[in-house]
């Protein structure tokens, strides 16, 4: 029979391993969705579709626009998904008791950059694709990708270092 202390320790390890796994999946999902967002954003820019949806945050006709606004609407939907995943990853980093300073910094910085990107995206639309703002939007996007990539790498490093210290 297990003592109640042993059961408590086992339960705590199970909860911790689930938080760690959730952090890894959140970070990896955020990275994949963010890469997809950058791909779609590059397509929109190269195809000259940046102002196909002239209103922000929604396109004309509301939440589900007509097909002429579809690609820009997809970009905004993927941006909202990426933003949510990045903020959730940052929260998970702060909840994880074994998360170090590096992952907390990169995830928090990424969350701040998401807010910056959303603001820049709105300004780019409102100012009709001002070239300087478009360039800044791209630059911040690249920095955001770097922070999310580092956060993902640190998330998997946490898991690896925890496994090696237990053996």
What does this structure look like?
This protein has one domain. It is mainly alpha-helical and 167 residues long. It has helices spanning 4-46, 70-95, 101-126, 131-166. α1 (4-46) runs antiparallel to α4 (131-166) and α3 (101-126) runs antiparallel to α4 (131-166). Helices cover 78% and strands 0% of the residues. The radius of gyration is 20 Å and the shape is elongated.
Keywords for this entry:
167 residues, mainly alpha, 4 helices, 78% helix
Blueprint of the fold:
Blueprint: H1 4-46, H2 70-95, H3 101-126, H4 131-166
Helix pairs in contact: 1-2, 1-4, 2-3, 3-4
Give the structural class: mainly alpha
Number of domains: 1
Q: Give the topology string: H per helix, E per strand.
A: HHHH
Strand count: 0
* Proportion of beta-strand residues: under 5%
Distance between the termini: 25 Å
Concise account of the structure shown:
The protein is an all-alpha fold.
């Amino acid at each position: 029979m297990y003592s109640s202390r042993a059961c408590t320790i086992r339960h705590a390890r199970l909860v911790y391993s689930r938080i760690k796994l959730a952090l890894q999946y959140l970070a990896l999902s955020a990275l994949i969705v963010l890469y997809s967002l950058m791909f779609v954003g590059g397509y929109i820019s190269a195809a000259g579709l940046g102002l196909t949806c002239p209103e922000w945050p929604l396109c004309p006709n509301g939440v589900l626009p007509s097909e002429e606004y579809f690609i820009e609407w997809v970009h905004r939907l993927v941006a909202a998904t990426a933003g949510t995943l990045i903020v959730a990853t940052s929260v998970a980093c702060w909840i994880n008791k074994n998360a170090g300073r590096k992952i907390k910094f990169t995830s928090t910085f990424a969350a701040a950059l998401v807010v910056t990107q959303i603001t820049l995206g709105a300004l780019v639309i409102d100012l009709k694709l001002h070239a300087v703002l478009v360039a800044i939007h791209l630059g911040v996007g690249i920095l955001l990708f770097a922070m999310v990539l580092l956060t993902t790498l640190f998330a998997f490093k946490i898991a690896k270092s925890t496994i090696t210290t237990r053996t």
